[in-house]
Amino acid sequence: MTKEEAENGRDDMLIDGPEQANAVPDGFNATYLRIYYGKLFPHADIFKWMSYGNDGKHPACDKSYFGRREFSFTLENDIYIRFQSFNSVSELENSIKEKCPFKIDIGPVYSVDPAKRHAYEQSGDNVFTPVERELVFDIDITDYDDVRFCSNEADVCLECWPLMTVAIKVIDTALRDDFGFNHILWVYSGRRGVHCWVCDRKARRLTNEQRTSIADYFRVYKVAMKIVTKRCLPGPVLHPFLARSYTEVLKGFFEAKLLSNQNLLSSEKRYEEILEMIPDASVASELGGRWEENKRPSMSKEDTNITQGLRRCVEEIIFSFTYPRLDMEVSKHMNHLLKAPFCVHPKTGRVCVPIDPNNCDEFDPTTVPTLSQLLEELNKGGLRQDAERMG
Predict the structure, then answer these.
(1) Of 11, 140, 172, 376, which one is the catalytic site residue?
(2) Known catalytic membership, residue 329
(3) pLDDT tens sequence across 291-311
(4) How far apart are CA 111 and CA 99, in angstroms?
(5) Active site includes 70?
(6) Cα–Cα distance between 121 and 132 in angstroms, integer?
(7) Which residue of the set 11, 105, 138, 143 is catalytic?
(8) What spatial distance separates the first Cα and last Cα of the chain, rounded to whole Å?
(9) Rg of the chain's alpha carbons, rounded to an integer?
(10) Three state DSSP letters for the chain
(11) If pLDDT is split at 50, 70 and 90, which confidence band does 1 have?
């Protein structure tokens, strides 16, 4: 299919012959995207979500609300367009179909229409400022590179993805139980991580200072240049939030899955990093001897008994390997952009689909539909309709 055919609406992508109905080559390109945006992208649902009831259907709504929301488009060849705004779902849909962005980011609701910000700047009044924005979190698997040895760089597999599952469980529980938020959306980033949107009204109206305080609530250690500060737990007793996370999620995951999945004790280099976190030299030496002698991929009951007097040390080891590693700057500022749900990641071709936090253990990133797979499904549907009409 040519580009002109896609632009003229001839986007059924059907290939001659039923035996070739599934023959949509893998890939990511503008032609595929035009079909996706024309037939599958949930424009109306995005508009309804981002309007929060301000859709013009009742007299008390703020009709300018959606029009003050910033959208950012990244076009083919990395052309970046910020401060896009739309006054209706049709404007949003038409712009997406016309520009065919390779990526859509969503920003805050501003005090004035972001597309007209320059007119307000010329007036001399500082009126162009963000007034609402979901509280957002961004967690990337590459920030765990020092504790995962199954994949390299941005690759993700079923051995390391459970680290994202643990992050969802810990953060989601705290947001609901400790902060009282209810409207929380988790989204697969399409490649190597997850995004969280907290959409409660009180969350959207948090100041930058309040957002920073919430982000700091989740801070246990610092990550700089992919080097994690291992000794991280303050005080002699765990904060109730940390204690809950440890007993309900982190400890069991570390012992049952991470130790074996990532082969943390399979080489001298790897287990020496753990031994360095043990302050008692005699205990570290004894454990090191046991692991070297037996070459065990996990800790035994005897190993656990040796460390009974080092409870805080064990906690710190488990936290340093399993606790969620947030991109703090994303959460602290209202004007930070975040990729829209249901975008398609250009590197993997996978759709940024929502994740149910109550069933996040069942989520498999390797089975998330790709752009080409969705087009194949469209082809099948088209052929079935043709067959039914002919029958």
Answers:
(1) 140
(2) no
(3) 666 655 555 545 444 444 466
(4) 26
(5) yes
(6) 20
(7) 138
(8) 27
(9) 25
(10) CCHHHHHCCCCCCCCCCHHHCCCCCCCCCHHHHHHHHHHCCCHHHHHHHHHCCCCCCCCCCCCCCHHHEEEEEEEHHHEEEEEECCCCHHHHHHHHHHHCCCEEEEEEEECCCHHHHHHHHHCCCCCCCEEECCEEEEEEHHHHCCCCCCCCCCCCCCCCCHHHHHHHHHHHHHHHHCCCCCCEEEEECCCCEEEEEECCHHHHCCCHHHHHHHHHHCCCCCEECCEECCCCCCCCCCCHHHHHHHHHHHHHHHHHHHHHHCCCCCCHHHHHHHHCCCCCHHHHHHHHHHHHHHCCCCCCHHHHHHCHHHHHHHHHHHHHHHCCCECHHHHHCCCCCEECCCCECCCCCEECCEECHHHHHHCCHHHCCEHHHHHHHHHHHHHHHHHHHHC
(11) very low
Active-site residue, 140 included? yes
Spatial contact of 338 and 174, defined as CB atoms under 8 Å apart:
no
Q: Using one digit for the tens of pLDDT, what is the confidence trace for 156-194?
A: 889 999 999 999 999 999 999 999 999 999 999 999 999
